[in-house]
Amino acid sequence: MVGLTASRTYSKGWINDHARHTFTMARRLPDSPQVRAFYQLPEDESVRIAPPPFPAERMVPDKPPSRPGAPPLWPCNRTYRWRGDALEEEGACYGRWAAKDMIREFLQLYPQELAGDVAAAQIPLTADFVIRGEPDRAQYQVAIEQLLSLATGIPTALVYRQVSRPVIVLTGKWTPASGLSGIAIRGPSFAQPIGPPESGSMTGFAKFLGDWIGRIVIIEASQSPAQVTWQRHHIRSGTKEQAEQCRDADLVCQCVAEQTGLSRVDKTMEITQLFVEPSLQGH
Questions:
Q1: What HEC string does 163-212 produce?
Q2: Domain-by-domain residue ranges, the chain?
Q3: Taking CA 110 as the corner, what is the angle to CA 213 and CA 207, rounded to the nearest 5 degrees?
Q4: pLDDT digits (tens, 9 = 90+) for 260-280
Q5: How many CB atoms lie within 10 A of CB 215?
Q6: Mind listing the pLDDT tens digit for each residue in 55-101?
């Protein structure tokens, strides 16, 4: 038997516009020639995409139907890792899964940092990831290019470029409000906390904030801490206009500025963006 063990949890689940990666219970696939052939990974490779058609052993529902009579739920993506001769399942994704989710997961780049044919990175796909060892970013990039090529039907490349773009800069001396334990990413005052608090570097916080409001955000703060904690706020019910206010750049940045003592400056800067474009090499 090929042992499949759920050894990592993908807990990233963002409102509406991101795939939801969920913990997958340990299970076993028959050690069949079909399974090994489909998920094979040569010793000199670290990661690759495995698109359908999947072997029959993979198509086993992990979740019961959402309601009586509804079809069973299959993940649109599974991530498998070879450890020696054993194949371990690390996670699964239900819902919309696209190249942008893998760019975020493995290249640590958020949607606002993409350019070019961004729509290609948003095309929903069904495909598995097969990994051996610890691939570096360059190896993950090659695999994601394979995924994009699958989505577009043409060879597609990811290219880093320095470009001039409008950005939001939060600048000044970091002077958090009295008693502040975590930064509320909130637009209107009626928005409520959603999801657990998250922590990371100041750069990570800027990326997350930029993703929430759909803008490039840069934080240039003196005397800032190495790590910060933040939490998203949104409405659980309400109008479309109220929902849009929760991600309004002006409202959210004003709220963050009031909590941190920083000031907002809008300017144009040279930044690095990842372009999605047809491959000139046709690979």
A1: EEEEEEEEEEECCCCCCCCCEEECCCCCCEECCCCEEEEHHHHHHHHHHH
A2: 2-153, 163-270
A3: 60
A4: 999 999 999 999 999 999 997
A5: 17
A6: 888 877 666 666 777 776 777 888 889 988 888 888 888 777 899 99
